[in-house]
């Protein structure tokens, strides 16, 4: 039988062993200089109606970067959730506003791709993006109480039953908030997205990648039984914030 004193000695020895630090990538704050690239990544598309997630590039309107797609999970929580984080074509610079920029011009959707997109819109799917490991949210305000609340991600599109119609959100207004830590050091502390459906015929694209949205109310309708042509665009708005990175 092992003496009780020896067991006590082993217990104490285990307790006084040095504790090694455990670092999870993606948790530490990132500092950006003005104009420095702030990468926008995609996670997935989700729906509370079906509970079945899909890859960001599952639909044809999410055009891939010219250098290809790179999937990467950056921390333990993302791995456990099964998130497949991937790069996107969005180009965002720290504290640099963009009036309108073309993401994909005249994307031709086959009838099969149109059917898939229509199905995702009808099932109320949301798209989830990340900036500096901060997920995007859509801001809403209660008409009666004027109370502000947020939804995770942004809606892929709009579905109406009477008359039955589907519209894709093909223009994103990205509202990013930064906190200035030092004279030339900025940190991302907020990420909001306002999605809009704009008829691609109202979008005038330029050779340098910029675009102009012409007046009108027509939205980008999707016919799930036919071919569709869609232009995807976005704009970026930066706002200073008193919120610090640790409290974002």
Automatic annotation (TrEMBL):
It is found in: Golgi apparatus; Membrane. It is a multi-pass membrane protein. One of its GO terms (biological process) is protein localization to membrane. Residues 1-21 form the signal peptide. It holds the Pfam family EMP70. GO terms for cellular component: Golgi apparatus; membrane. Keywords: Golgi apparatus, Membrane, Signal, Transmembrane, Transmembrane helix. Belongs to the nonaspanin (TM9SF) (TC 9.A.2) family. PANTHER family: TRANSMEMBRANE 9 SUPERFAMILY MEMBER 4, TRANSMEMBRANE 9 SUPERFAMILY PROTEIN. This is Transmembrane 9 superfamily member. It comes from Rotaria socialis.
């Amino acid at each position: 039988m092992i003496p009780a004193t020896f067991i006590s000695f082993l217990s104490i020895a285990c307790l006084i062993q040095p504790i090694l630090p455990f670092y999870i990538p993606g948790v530490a704050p990132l500092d950006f200089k003005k104009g420095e690239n702030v990468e926008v990544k995609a996670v997935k598309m989700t729906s509370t109606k079906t509970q079945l997630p899909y890859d960001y590039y599952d639909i044809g309107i999410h055009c891939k970067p010219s250098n290809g797609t790179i999937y990467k999970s950056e921390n333990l929580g993302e791995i456990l959730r099964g998130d497949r984080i991937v790069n996107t074509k969005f180009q965002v610079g720290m504290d640099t506003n963009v009036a309108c920029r073309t993401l994909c011009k005249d994307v031709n959707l086959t009838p099969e791709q149109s059917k898939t997109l229509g199905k995702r819109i009808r099932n109320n799917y949301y798209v989830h993006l990340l900036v500096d490991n901060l997920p995007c949210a859509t801001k809403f305000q209660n008409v009666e109480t004027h109370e502000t609340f947020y939804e995770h991600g942004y809606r892929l599109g709009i579905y109406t039953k009477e008359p039955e119609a589907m519209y894709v959100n093909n223009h994103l207004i990205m509202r990013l908030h930064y906190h200035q830590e030092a004279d030339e050091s900025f940190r991302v502390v907020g990420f909001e997205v306002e999605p809009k459906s704009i008829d691609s015929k109202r979008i005038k694209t330029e050779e340098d990648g910029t675009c102009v949205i012409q007046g009108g109310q027509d939205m980008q309708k999707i016919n799930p039984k036919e071919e569709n042509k869609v232009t995807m665009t976005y704009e970026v708005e930066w706002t200073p914030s008193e919120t610090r990175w640790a409290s974002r």
